Amino acid sequence: MPPSAALHAGGHDLIIGATLGRYFSIRFVKTILVVFGTVFALVYTIDFVELMRRAGDAPGATAAMMAQLALFRTPSVAEQVLPFAVLFGSMATLLQLSRKLELVVARAAGISAWEFLQPGLLVAALLGVASITLYNPLSAALRQQAGIIEARIFDNPSRATGREIWMRQRSPEGQAIIRAEALVPGASTLTRVTMFMFDDSGAFIQRVEAKEAHLRDGFWDLRDARVLTAEEEPRSYGQMMVASSLEPAQLKESFTAPDAVSFWSLRETIERTERAGLDARPYRLHYDTLLARPVLFVAMVLVAASVSLRFFRFGGIAKLVLGGVAAGFMLYVATELMEDLGASGLVETRVAAWFPAIVGVMLGVLALLYQEDG
C-alpha cells in the first residue's frame, strides 16, 4: 500500500473512532439521564402524595405549597440513587447495542470491549464530576430551603437537624456542655436547652435550663431560663446571658445535615466545626464520599459491562441482568456499611469513602478480564 493510502486509511480509522466514540457516548448519556429522570419523577410523586397526606393536619397548607416543597426535597433524595442510574443506564445501553448487533459489528471491525467501553467510562467520570460540582450544590441549597419551609408549615423545628444536639464550648467564664433538642432552621437558635457549666479546673458550677437559646456575638441569650446549683434554691429568669466563644455562623453550619451542605462549602464547614471543638466526622465523610463519586460511577459502568456484553443469541440474558442488579445491590450494601463504620470512627473517613469505589472498579475489571481475555 502506498504511503498516501496508508495515511488516508489511518485518518479514516481515526474519524471512524471519533464517530463511534460520540455515538456510544450519546447513547450512554441519554439512557442514564432517562433512568435518573424516571427515578426523580417517581420520588417526587411519592413525596408529594405523602406531603398532601400530612397537609391535612397543617392549617393553611395548599397543594401548590406541597408541590413546591416536594420539588425542593426530591433532588437531595434522588442524588442517593445516582450510582444506580449509572448502573442500570449502562446495562440498558450495552444490552440495546448488543441486541441490535452493533457490538458484534464493532468487534468484527477489530474493536475490543475495552475500546468501546471507553466512551461509557468517560461519560461516567464526567457525570460524577458534574454531580458533585453542579448538581450537589443545587440539591443542598434546595434541601436547606425545604427544611425552612417545612418547619414553617408543619411547625416542627426538629426537622432541621433530625437528631439531638450535644456540644462543648469554652468561654472566659469556664467550660460548658450544652444539650438541645433542635436547631431552628435558618437561625442560630436552639430549643429546649440544658447547659452544664464548669469552672476552669473542671468543678461543676451550675445547671441552666432554658426554653430557647439565641446565639449572639459573644454570648447566649437565654429565654425562660432556670438555674439550679447545689447550694441554692432554683432561680428563674425571663432572660439570661451566658458568655460564648462560638459564632452564629458556626452554629448554623455545624448542625446542618451533611447532605444539606454544598460541596463547595464543605471544607470551610469542616474547619469551622473543628475549630469549635465539635465532631466534624460526618462532614468529612460526606466530603470524601463526594470526591470518590466519579470513581464509583466508573465502577458501575464496569459492573454493568461484566453482565451485559453477552450476545443475545447465546441466551441467559435475564440471569445476567439479575446478576448485575445483585452486584449493584451488594455494592450499595458495602457502601452503606463502610459509611456507617466511617461515621462511627471505626474506619478512617477516606477509607470508608474510597473503599467501595475502588473495590467495585477492581471487581469489574477482573470480571471483564475473565470474559474477554480469559
Order of helices and strands: HHHHHHEEEEEEEHHHHHH
The count of DSSP E runs of length 2 or more, i.e. the number of strands, is 7
Whole-angstrom Rg? 27 Å
Main sheet record = 7 strands, antiparallel
Strand residue content: 15-25%
What is the global morphology?
A: elongated
Multimeric organization: single chain
Cα separation of the termini: 35 Å
Give the low-pLDDT segments.
1-16, 157-162
Number of helices: 12
Helix content: 55-70%
3D structure, described in words:
- The chain has 374 residues and is an alpha+beta fold.
- Helix content is 63%, strand content 16%.
- The chain contains twelve helices and seven strands.
- Strands 1, 2, 3, 4, 5, 6 and 7 form a seven-stranded antiparallel beta sheet that branches.
- Strand 5 and strand 6 (219-228) form a beta hairpin.
- Helix 3 (82-99) runs parallel beside helix 10 and helix 8 packs antiparallel against helix 9 (281-291).
- It is elongated and about 90 Å long.
- The relative contact order is 0.10.
Key terms:
374 residues; alpha+beta; seven-stranded antiparallel sheet; 7 strands; 16% strand; elongated; disordered N terminus
